[in-house]
Each structure stands twice: as structure tokens, then as C-alpha cells.
Amino acid sequence: MKFCGQCGQQLIPEARFCVSCGAAVLKVPTTASSADATVPDHQRQPEYAAAAGSSVSGQGAAMGERSIPGEGSAATQDYSPAQPSAAGAAGARKPASAFTGIPISDYVRDGAAALALIMSLFMAWSYGSDGTSKAAARVDVVLITLVSLLSLGLSYVWRAGVFGPATGYRRIQDLKLLANAPYVLMVLVYTALSLISADRFDPGAVAALGPAVAFGLAGALLAAQPRRAEIAPGAVDEPRNRRWIRVTLGVAALAAVVALVQIIRYWAAYGGSGSSGWGIVATLMALASPAVLLIIAVRVNQRSDGWRRAGVALALGSGFLSLLALFEELTLLQLSVTAFVPGFSLLFWMAFGAAVSAPSVARLTEASKVAPTDTRNTLQPLLFLAAGLSAVLALGSADTVITVAVDGYSGGLVPQVIALFFGLLLTAGAILTLRLTGKDPRSAYIMPSGYAGLLVVLGLVLLIVWVVQDEDFYLGPVIMLLTFVVPAALLATLWLPAASREQFRRLPAAAGSEASGFSFAGAPAEAPAEPQLPVTEAAAGSPADKGDRASEETAPLDRGTNPPQSAPAAAAVVVDPDVLTEAANPGTPLARLQELAANHPLARPAVAANPSTYPALLAWLSELGDPAVDQALRQRG
Fold first, then answer.
1. Fewer Cβ close by (within 10 Å): the C or N end of the chain?
2. CA nearest neighbour of 75 among 155, 157, 164
């Protein structure tokens, strides 16, 4: 029994066309068709290959065959169209380019990986008793880095057909992962050596890891992950996608293990030799850094796209801070890791961001992706992180203030007190901003933007005080994150998406803001809550009515009183088109809108529809009983 591959209807035996939809009945080919022989499976986009594979598997199921997308060659899967085209019948199809269908983001990812790996060769790989060891001076680091760099070309070589038609995109994913595994193993080995042999002073001992590890590991993870053009749609490759969430958890766990070993060795060596206050600050900072990574990794493992984006934002920010840390004069940031100096380290933050930004992870979290106009849910992870980092700043500075007061130090108290006050203020501000974003759509834009500005201003003040007082760098990374990274992430999330900006532009003004009295035309214009609007517009009529109209001009029009003009007279009034345009313009001053409503009855519907019209004037217009005005008010909602 056979079924149509287009509509699914049962086919008549030996039929050549479907009687329902007219599609040609496909035969299961034993070899690749001539039209597709020139386009092997390795040059096809996985999205199309998987889709075609699922379609063919549906047809093959009816004919007793099975197809696995991403594996095998074009000879084992039918990608031919239901009805061959005239061009395909006339001649062979032009071979596809190795760069066909690759999105720009894949090129950017390849470029970022190559840049990070190359930059790492010119940085310090480790510090030891015999001085600084550059990455380019170590044979093992250079060779393994070259392997990672060469792995970036695997996808393009595969697309060019070098590996043959039997190699699918899944095998390329595995090859890229295997090619970059040596770099990860090398980092693990050197990390263990730095933690074990930190107290040895023999030549060659690795006492600390340098910034080359941070940049190189991030580049290797970027090179190892599949690109967007190498991932099948839907849940076809979900097990393969999930391994990149495990990589994210692994990087966070590595940072946590390093911090715990640092804390244990620090207290074992210096726990009884002095004040414990500084040790508490160092311990708090050392735990805070992996805690941030672990929180993000756990939430990403729960398929939260908002937290994934927060992790990417922190990774980009940490990359910027890591570049600043390369300047030796900047003591607020350090990328090196030593066993005896725990602290807030950014060494593994770039690698964590590289893993959490993988397209495989994005494919898993895309189901929970929120619209850019849903500012509360979009900003929630960033505001939580801002509150946590501010709380760490407050706790660290509070412990330092207590330590300085107890030990009787003469200096260093002023910046710590300022940091304590700013930390408490920023923590409360983050919590308040998160609560206010759910009250009003307009507040969801205004409050986070104001909070981002507050972070920048207070952070810059604190940085200036910190540098002038020449304070220690325990709190330096936290201050830098709160000053530059978190505000940039908040503002970018709010204002970079075009849909978010358009949403804010369409939002009505806040309740009561129209009656604030502010006018762009000049002096503030008073907007009484219950306007008394005189009618000065004289209706067209006979000269005998002038006396009555003159008395009407001097009589105030109370609320609830209809204008004393008849419908025929009002209909005869001719209004200047510029007046109607002015009445409908949201930028018209409030005083002018009041004047137009009082003196131009035919302009009142436009005034009622104007989004800048203040509530008191709307209430007066609603009591006039004018059908056109009432219709405009109803359209306002």
C-alpha cells in the first residue's frame, strides 16, 4: 500500500500521479538522480537536508525504508522535487558554493574564535618562580592552538566536498569537538599544576595562570561549537545540543573548584596569622564569581532564554574588562589565578560566555524566548544580577569597614563607607525597579533606563574615589561590572530592538502627565482640573443674532452645559485646515488645545483624538453630547 508524499492520500496501484493533488509518484532511487548528483549531501544546508530527510522518511516508511537526517550521502536519501523542473531536465545543476547559505553570525563567530586564539599567543600563559612564560614561547601551547585554528576551516572544507558524500554534518560536529578537546585538556592540566605547585619555587613551577588561558579557552570553545548552518531544525539534534549546556555547567563548575581550592589553601596558610576580616572579604569575592556563573548555568539548563541572554551579555562585558585588565597600571582587575590569593576572578568568564552563546544552546532555549516588548521578563535576569552584585559590594565593603575599625587602620575607611552606601542603594534600586516594571508599560522603560544611569554615575564616583585612595582590588571587578557591563546590558536590551523602540513610541503618556502644566511653547501653561471654557467662535447667521452671540461670548460654559448654538449654525462654520492639523498634533501646547476646544467646535473631535489632550479637557468634551466627539473618545479606548 502506497501513499502520496504530498497530500498523504492512498494511491491507486501502479498509479503515476496522485488523483487527489496531481503530484507525481516518486520511485525510491537506488542511486542519486542526475539533477542532484552535482549537489552532494555535504554541500546541503542541514536545515534543508533534515527537512528533506524527514519528508523522505515519511515516504520511505510507506515503502519500507528509513532515512536518518545528517548521516549518509545523497545516494541514500531522495532530495529531488516532486515534479522535476525544465532546467533540471535540460542539464546538470550548477554546483553549490562552499559558502552558500551561511549566515553572517557564523562568520562573526569564526572571526571571534580566530581572534581570541591568535591574541592569546601574545599574552602571558603562566607565572612561576622563573618569571613570566609567554604562550608563544611554549611549544605545547603553540601546537595545540594551531590545531584549534585549523579546526575553523573544517566546515568550509566539508562544504567544498573534500570529505566525500558519505560525511554528514554530524560527523563534522564531532570532528570540530575532537579537534578542540586538546586545548581544554591542556587548560585543565595547567590549572591543576597551578593549584598544586603554587608553594614550590623550583624553576618551571606554575604558580599562576595568565590571561592567555582566558582568551585561548574562550576561542577554543567558540571553534568547537556547531554553527547555526550546521544544526538541524526542531528536536532532531537535541541530544547533541544538550551537550553544550553540559559544557556551560562544566566551565562554571571549574571556576567553583578553583575558588574552593584557593579558599582552603588561603585559610590553611594564613588563617591564624592575623586579622580574619580580610580573609572573609577575599572568601566572599572568590565565591561570588563562580556563583554568578552557576546561577546562569542552572537557569539555562532549565531552558531559560532570558538567563542565556544575560550570560551572553556578561560574557561580552567580561571580554571588554579582560582587555582592560591587560594594562598593568589598572590594578582593579586581574585575570591571573593563584592558589594563595582568592578573589573575584574573571579568568573563566569569557569561556563561559562562549559556551552559553552557542547556537545549540539557543536552539534549546528558543521555546522560552519572550518578545522584545515584554520588558519585565526580558530585564528580570539582568536586574537580579544587578541586585546580587550590589549586595556583594555592600557585604564586602561592610566587612572591610568593620575590619578597618577593629584593627585600627588610619586610612581606607572613606572609600569603603561610600561603597557600602552605594551598594545598599543600588540593591534597593534594583529590587524597586523590578517591582515597578510590572505596574505600568511606560515605567517598564523609564525605570530601568534611570536605574542604568544611576549605576553609571555612582559607579564612576566610586571608581574615582577608589583610584585616588589607592585601595585594594578585592571589590574592583564588582565595581567595574556594575559601572560598565550591567548598565550597557540593560540599555541594549531596552533600546536596541526596533520592536521595543516602536512599542515605547506607541505607548500613551503616563496618567496625569498631560496635566503637569509643562509647555514647549514657552512658560508653563496652567491646566485647571475643571476648565471653564468660553465660547468665542461666532456661528454664521444673520446680523440680528450678533447681540445674542455677544452675550454668549462673555458667559462661561460650565461643566455639563452644551454649547448654546444650533446644529445648522454649527454646520455652517468653516474651519481653517491648519486649525484641524494643529488640533490633531500631539506637540500642540496644552493651553492651545484648550483654546481650540473652546473657540472651534468643529475641531473638538480632533482635540478629543489627540493623545496629548489632558484628562480634565477630555472630561469636559465628553459632557458636550457631540456625537463626533463621543466617537473620537471611544476610539481612544
1. C
2. 164
CB distance 315 to 297 below 8 Å: no
457 contact partners, CB below 8 Å, separation of at least 6: none
Q: Output the DSSP codes for 270-307.
A: HTTSS-SHHHHHHHHHHHHHHHHHHHHHHHHHTT-HHH
What tens digit of pLDDT does each residue of 22-45 get? 566 655 444 444 444 444 444 444
Bridge partner list, 127 = 132, 208
Amino acid at 122: F
Length of the chain, please? 637
131 strand-pairing partners: 128
**40-81 pLDDT tens trace:** 444 444 443 433 333 333 333 333 333 344 444 333 333 333
According to the model, what pLDDT value does residue 308 have? 93
CA angle 424, 426, 431 (to 5 degrees): 100
Q: How close are the terminal C-alpha atoms of the chain, in Å?
A: 60
Dmax over CA atoms of the chain, in Å, equals: 116
Measured CA to CA, the distance from residue 485 to residue 414 in angstroms comes to: 25
SS3 call for 125:
strand
Say how far residue 29 (Cα) sits from the centre of its chain.
46
3-state SS assignment for residue 208: strand
DSSP 233: S
Say which residue the cell 556578561 belongs to. Answer: 314
Sign of torsion over alpha carbons 40, 44, 50, 52: negative
Using CA atoms, how far apart are residues 148 and 224, in angstroms rounded to an integer? 8
Count of other CB atoms within 10 angstroms of residue 418:
17
Count other C-beta atoms under 10 Å from residue 347's C-beta: 25
Q: Tell me what pLDDT residue 371 has.
A: 81
Closest to 602 measured CA to CA, from 552, 567, 637, 635? 567
Q: How remote is the C-alpha of 415 from its chain's centroid?
A: 33
Average pLDDT score, the chain: 76
- Estimate the crossing angle of helix 486-495 against helix 375-407, to 10 degrees: 170
- Beta-bridged to residue 631, according to DSSP, are none
Confidence class of residue 534 from pLDDT cuts 50, 70 and 90?
very low
